[in-house]
Specification:
The chain is α/β, with parallel strands linked by helices. The chain has twelve helices and 20 strands. The strands form five sheets. The chain has a ten-stranded mixed beta sheet with strand order 9-7-5-2-10-1-11-15-19-20, sandwiched between helices. Strands 14, 16, 17 and 18 form a four-stranded mixed beta sheet that branches. A two-stranded antiparallel ribbon has the order 3-4. Strand 16 and strand 17 form a beta hairpin. The longest helix is centred in the middle third of the chain and has 16 residues. The radius of gyration is 21 Å and the shape is globular. The chain binds guanosine-5'-diphosphate, 6-O-phosphoryl inosine monophosphate (IMO) and magnesium ion. The site of magnesium ion has 6 residues, from loops.
Length: 423
């Protein structure tokens, strides 16, 4: 059976954690393929709330295998903290989580480099989560990185020290004070904990599952517009967040990709720097932030908010080959009298429906206005009970993007999910 993919179509925080948790009941295997503890995936069920950073969102489902793929970068300290919280809640993490030997390790000094280089950028900073993601992927592509599989080798300590020394040399260029041994002891302790997990050859493991007709769901982190190659560079993360990243991050061929579900919010948010054409720096934006509780699940930072951007959404659907859409958080718009969607960008005198190359291009969004539904959607469980104005909004997006919306999420809880045309 081919590997299905669920990923974000915007700038992250679309609600991937919630949806993967919902879908996980139909999948014996959930696999994260990129990113690391910069992600914060929230899940809510039976009056409990959890935020996962490195761990796939199928971990609460009995009998579900959760794979941390080769494309993921792991901070052992954060991973252990995450696991301990789950163990306290009764989740048998060591039975449910498998880790690729090829996943790269975030060293304490990677986090220091992240902080030093962001500080040096000043006004032009990326707004990184400062989890050491960029420096770790730099070492990976620079062929200096250390992988999970290396932790059981004899020369591990030596390799650690060589890389740490390189980092100290690199840090000399910055006017940044730090303790080179910061978190080192806890980091090594956490590695001992990781050794208690099953470490796998992810590519063989997943291809066998595919061959044995097991259903695998690949879970993306971040969002398509933060992709290192196709996002709003340089205001991006350092991994491939799009469908192609699932092939690389799990070790599967493109022909083994099955359905691709693209998740988007009924409006937009972004955290960190970079272009956001439909951003609202006014009371409406503040309202969206308040009603949608738009504060980072990893950093607690207030998220920037704005109207839905169809130009960006179509771009993301194209990049991913999304064959169905999942719309989140429309309930946040319940009280709005008028709702807007950007259909085009005006750049100078030109009207376009393409995302420009230049991240600093002066974009004026061209909006279409919709009458709000002015009803509480959070308790609706059947498609036929959804108000006319809301369905109007849904149908317009489907028609413009050319892809059906298969799932509508109307609240953070597992139960607040409408799966359309469910057989
Ligand atoms: P992720 O990174 O894509 O998993 O998303 P986050 O967890 O960072 O952010 C999504 C936030 O929206 C979380 O606080 C969720 O609990 C919440 N959420 C998810 N779906 C819905 C929804 O349909 N309605 C509302 N109101 N909140 C939602
Ligand atoms: P999830 O999986 C939203 C953003 C950061 C910053 C840029 C680079 O929860 O959707 P990095 O830490 O990777 O160096 O940050 O990317 N960013 C996210 N924004 N959701 C995320 O993950 C993000 N992960 C990184 O805010 O702008
Ligand atoms: Mg998040």
């Amino acid at each position: 059976m081919k590997v299905d993919v669920v990923l974000g179509l915007q700038w992250g925080d679309e609600g991937k954690g919630k949806i993967v948790d919902v879908l996980a009941k139909n999948y014996p295997v959930i696999a994260r393929f990129q990113g690391g503890p910069n992600a914060g995936h929230s899940l809510q069920f039976e009056d409990q709330k959890f935020v996962l950073h490195t761990i796939p969102s199928g971990v609460f489902r009995k009998n579900t295998q959760n794979i941390i793929g080769s494309g993921v970068v792991i901070d052992p300290i954060i991973f252990r903290q995450e696991c301990k919280k789950l163990e306290d809640a009764g989740v048998p993490v060591k039975e449910r989580i498998l880790i690729s030997k090829k996943a790269h390790l975030i060293l304490p000094t990677h986090r220091i480099i992240d902080a030093a280089s962001e500080q040096a950028k000043g006004e032009s900073k990326i707004g990184s989560t400062l989890k050491g993601i960029g420096p770790t992927y730099m070492d990976k592509t620079g062929r200096n990185g250390i992988r999970i599989g290396d932790i059981v080798t004899d020369n591990f300590l030596q390799r650690y020290n060589i890389l740490k020394e390189k980092h100290i040399m690199f840090l000399k260029q910055f006017d940044f004070s730090y303790d080179p041994n910061q978190n080192q002891e806890e980091w090594f302790d956490s590695l001992e904990y990781i050794k208690e997990f099953k470490l796998i050859d992810c590519e063989y493991h997943i291809n066998k599952l595919v061959h044995d007709n097991k259903r695998v769901l690949a879970e993306g982190a971040q969002g398509s517009l933060l992709d290192i190659d196709y996002g709003s560079y340089p205001f991006v993360t350092s991994s491939n967040t799009i469908t192609a990243g699932a092939c690389i991050g799990l070790g599967i061929a493109p022909k083994q990709i099955g359905s691709v579900s693209g998740i988007f919010k009924a409006y937009c948010t972004r955290v960190g720097s970079g272009p956001f054409p439909t951003e609202l720096n006014d009371d409406t934006g503040e309202n969206l932030r308040k009603l949608g509780s738009e504060f980072g699940a990893t950093t607690g930072r207030p998220r920037r908010t704005g109207w839905l951007d169809l130009v960006a959404l179509k771009y993301a659907v194209m990049l991913n080959g999304a064959d169905n859409l999942i719309m989140m958080k429309a309930d946040v718009l319940d009280s709005f009298t008028t709702i807007k969607i950007a259909t085009h960008y005006k750049i100078g005198e030109t009207i376009t429906d393409s995302v420009p190359f230049d991240p600093f291009a002066k974009i004026e969004p061209v909006y279409k206005e919709f009458k709000g539904w002015k009803k509480d959607l959070t308790k609706i469980t059947k498609e036929q009970d959804l108000p006319f104005e809301f369905m109007n909004y849904v149908r317009f997006i489907e028609k413009e993007v050319g892809v059906p919306i298969k799932i509508i999420s109307l609240g953070p809880d597992r139960s607040q999910t409408i799966i359309r045309n469910e057989e």
